[in-house]
Specification:
- The chain contains six helices and two strands.
- The termini are far apart.
- The chain is mainly alpha-helical.
- The protein has a two-stranded antiparallel sheet with strand order 1-2.
């Protein structure tokens, strides 16, 4: 008798079980589907609570800005995600500053 193994059975479920043993809470999509934002893959009320906890001076208006359509995909030719941590030659600081000034002030 052969068992079918896939990513769910070999990786995802064991990871969830281990995280729950460490004290993390499993959040079921079915229980949270009405609060789930498919554009961002987040559960909005939980994210909002944690955002305001980490940013105690932030207002409701600041949180609303996070949910707006003020998003921009920035592709940097020849760079990978690691380059954007410490390779200051490829980080487009001007574009980032312009975006922050335009959308997050």
């Amino acid at each position: 008798m052969s068992k079918d193994f896939n990513e769910l059975s070999r990786v995802q479920l064991p990871a969830v079980i281990q995280l729950m043993k460490l004290g993390y809470e499993y959040l079921s999509y079915n229980k949270n589907r009405f609060d789930f934002d498919p554009d961002n893959n987040i559960i909005v009320p939980i994210f909002k609570k944690q955002f305001l906890k980490l940013n105690p001076d932030a207002s409701e208006d600041a949180f609303k800005k996070l949910q707006g359509d003020n998003k921009e995909l920035l592709i940097i030719p020849g760079a990978n995600h690691v380059d954007l941590y410490d390779n200051i030659e490829v980080i487009p600081f001007g574009k980032i500053e312009r975006f922050f000034n335009e959308h997050l002030r």
